[in-house]
Design a protein that fits this description.
heterodimer; A: 271 residues; Rossmann fold; 10 helices; globular; B: mainly alpha; Urease accessory protein UreF; 0% strand; UreF (chain B); UreF_sf (chain B)
Chain lengths: 271, 224
């Protein structure tokens, strides 16, 4: 199977797409890959997840990778050394010790890197963008990626998923990684997944380990499904947002809103 | 100067999403080499940068602004090569073009203008600054001031991450530099209609050497 979609079929006149699809293409790009962000704290296995995806999916999709390291281009070097993709399709962006800025407030460097990759290796099907490991609040701007997964691991603590936050709560997919280590760090994976599902109000959660192929194949299936939805125009990008759902007191008793789906609220008089 | 002040603030604001936050303006290798270690050292570094490469960049920004305003497109490529010639470090030439490309990407998106089509795909930052200033209805002196501000505000912002320093001391140095930047912007604007080959060519050899060393490091906080 070899997907190769033209941009014209990917950005139809569907209001849902139009409203949310802030990701820009250059005029020279007639081809626009599906852009997937991979975020999450340091050491949870973002590079490993990307290596797994490349290894498992490179027969089906033409994939490119952009890494965002904090100090070095170590992640790019790791991925190149894994041999999961031709080395030239893995590029590093230096983020000046501000990995969160590079995926959220000022995405210009990453946007240019993605567009260059898409142009140099056209047609690409998927570009994976690895955020520099940061904290629980860092999520990708919808101006940069079409979908994002957020990676936690059991070794970081079983209670992290329960704490929620924009990445855990709102990413398109939450990955709980290294579940093979759970027994060694006294984490109940079932409970961690249940906590995560509760924080995510039904959005998907996958518990995986690269040592358990049946779990990583679920991850690959999720990407395949996402790609199909992207190509047929039914995928609507959502923004996990920098803010958790919150309550506004007003004269009529107040309301709760979630800041999701690229929906913009204009707040008057109480900020 | 009364006209266009808001546009100038927009252009010079470090929050403009043009990727400047990833660069230290040469401060990282300078701190590492022990040439800057305290607030006084930082201030000397900032003044030195403004007076040398900052001033050259300002003159080129002013010249680009002036040329694009009078439709002299061919002159822009002459500015590009003259600025290359004034930047001995290959690394710094590359950084200037990367930052220029990023600024072009932002400005041509947020404020489309026919001027931007006259630039190449990877133009030098000061040249883009001049063209962007013209597109916003600003003049050569504004373009010069914007790039001078950038030349000191960038490393000043990086200082807090690179050295043990009170952020108030950093901004006190910037406050003391304001009159100097105004004076340099005036002087740079005076060159706006000079021949490209006659534009100022002040150098900062240690910065060139430091940039080349910095590129070879395996671990660094900033891209330059």
């Amino acid at each position: 199977m070899r997907w190769s979609a033209k941009l014209s079929t990917l950005v139809p006149d569907k209001p849902a797409m139009e409203e949310n699809s802030m990701a820009k293409t250059t005029p020279t790009n007639e081809h626009r890959a599906l852009r997937i962000g991979v975020a999450g704290p340091v050491g949870t296995g973002k590079s490993s997840v990307i290596a797994t995806l490349c290894r498992s999916l490179s027969d089906e999709f033409v994939i490119g990778v952009i890494t965002n390291d904090i100090y070095t281009d170590e992640d790019a070097r790791f991925l190149r050394s894994e041999g999961v993709l031709p080395a030239e399709r893995i590029r590093a962006v230096e983020t000046g010790a501000c990995p969160h800025t590079a995926i959220r407030d000022d995405v210009t460097m990453n946007l240019i890197a993605i567009e260059d990759l898409e142009r140099d290796f056209a047609p690409l099907d998927i570009v994976l963008v690895e955020s520099g490991g940061d904290n629980l609040t860092a999520t990708f701007s919808p101006a940069l990626v079409d979908a994002q997964l957020f990676v936690l691991d059991v070794a970081g603590g079983g209670d992290v998923a329960r704490k929620g936050g924009p990445g855990i709560g709102g990413a398109d997919l939450l990955v709980i990684n290294k579940v093979d280590l759970a027994e060694h760090v006294d984490v109940d994976v079932g409970q961690m997944v249940a906590d995560a599902e509760k924080a995510r109000e039904g959005r998907p959660v996958l518990a995986i380990s690269r040592k358990r192929p049946e779990t990583t194949s679920q991850l690959c299936d999720w990407v395949r499904q996402l790609y199909r939805a992207y190509v047929d125009g039914s995928h609507a990008p959502v923004d996990p947002g920098p803010m958790a759902p919150h309550f506004h007191a007003t004269d009529d008793g107040g309301h709760v809103h979630s800041h999701e789906g690229g929906h913009t609220h204009h707040h008057h008089g109480h900020e | 100067m009364a006209q266009g002040q808001a546009a100038l603030l927009l252009l010079a604001d470090g929050r403009l999403p043009a990727g400047g936050y990833a660069h230290s303006g040469g401060l990282e290798p300078t701190v590492q080499a022990g040439r800057v270690s305290d607030a006084a050292g930082l201030e000397r570094f900032l003044v030195g940068r403004a007076e040398t490469t900052g001033f050259v960049a300002a003159a080129f920004a002013a010249a680009a602004c002036e040329r694009v305003a009078r439709d002299d497109t061919a002159a822009l490529s002459a500015l590009e090569s003259e600025l290359d010639a004034r930047t001995p470090s290959p690394e710094l030439r590359s950084v200037s073009r990367i930052l220029g490309r990023q600024l072009l990407r932002v400005m041509s998106t947020i404020h489309p203008h026919p001027h931007f089509a006259r630039l190449g795909t990877v133009p030098h930052q000061p040249v883009v600054m001049g063209v962007a200033a013209a597109a916003l209805g600003l003049g050569p002196r504004d373009a010069a001031l914007a790039i001078l501000h950038e030349s000191v505000a960038g490393p000043a912002a990086a200082a807090a991450k690179l050295m043990r320093i009170d952020p108030f001391d950093v901004h006190a140095a910037l406050a003391r530099a304001t009159e100097r930047l105004d004076r340099l912007a005036d002087a740079a604007a005076n060159h706006a209609d000079a021949l490209a080959s006659e534009l100022p060519s002040r150098g900062a050899p240690l910065s060139d050497i430091a940039a080349e060393h910095h590129r070879s490091w395996n671990v660094r906080l900033f891209a330059s």
